[in-house]
Design brief:
With about 200 residues, this protein is mostly helical. The chain folds into two domains: about 10-75 and about 145-195, no CATH class; about 80-140, 2-Layer Sandwich (Endochitinase, domain 2), CATH 3.30.20.10. The chain has helices at about 25-35, 35-55, 60-70, 85-90, 105-110, 120-130, 145-155, 160-165, 170-175, 185-195, and strands spanning about 10, 20-25, 80, 110-115. Strands 1-2 form a two-stranded antiparallel sheet. Strands 3-4 form a two-stranded antiparallel sheet. Helix 1 packs antiparallel against helix 10 (about 185-195), helix 2 packs across helix 7 (about 145-155) and helix 3 (about 60-70) packs antiparallel against helix 10.
Length: about 200
């Protein structure tokens, strides 16, 4: 009789042959990140599969992914900016750097997902990359499977995975957030994951 491992164990098996196999459990991720265990159990397998699909499920990228989600979405679930429309307009409306050229773009293309995605140009770019019409259905960016795919695609195409494999943790942080926000917390999580995985 074959016995399956417990559901809360997430085994990382499809790594390049020069890597050993790594294991990290959902309780370990939750303890290190401070996220609710139920959310880690629910969402981490989706994120991991999306990283695999982008061929970036290596140890350092996984460390960067967990640390990034812990900082960007501390509840370890896709976020949907719940600010009122006036606040969203103030934050994002008319932001040329985000491609918000049209009236209402600030509200329509607000922060969603694990990364989180924001701005007309990003919704368009990742929608095309994933074959999903995010411009006309921006709320799809918050669906767990889509949010996980956006996250993995972002990590690959924006060079986050490459920076992680080079142990350029500052670059990882800047590529994701554009700033060094929450740097100390991010590095604490990186160090703990490095000691665990």
């Amino acid at each position: 009789m074959v016995v399956s491992p417990p559901v809360h164990i997430i085994q990382i098996m499809s790594l390049p042959s020069n890597h050993r196999h790594y294991q990290i459990s959902a309780p370990q991720i939750a303890a290190i990140s401070g996220a609710p265990l139920a959310n880690v159990v629910l969402y981490w397998p989706l994120i991991f599969k999306a990283l695999e699909a982008e061929d970036i499920a290596d140890r350092d990228t996984i460390i960067a992914a967990i640390a990034t989600i812990a900082i960007e979405t501390p509840e370890f679930k896709p976020v949907d900016d719940t600010a009122d429309d006036g606040t969203l307009l103030k934050k994002y409306e008319g932001s040329w750097s985000l491609g918000n050229f049209f009236a209402g773009d600030g509200v329509r293309y607000h922060r969603r997902g694990f990364i989180p995605l924001r701005g007309r140009s990003n919704y368009n770019q990742f929608g095309i990359r994933l074959g999903i019409d995010l411009l006309n259905q921006p709320e799809k960016a918050n669906e767990p499977l889509v949010a996980a795919r956006i996250f993995a695609s972002f990590f690959r195409w924006r060079g986050v995975s490459f920076a992680a494999r080079s142990h350029e943790w500052r670059k990882v942080r800047v590529l994701v957030s554009g700033t060094m926000n929450d740097w100390a917390s991010f590095m604490r999580i990186i160090c703990r994951l490095n000691a665990t995985i």
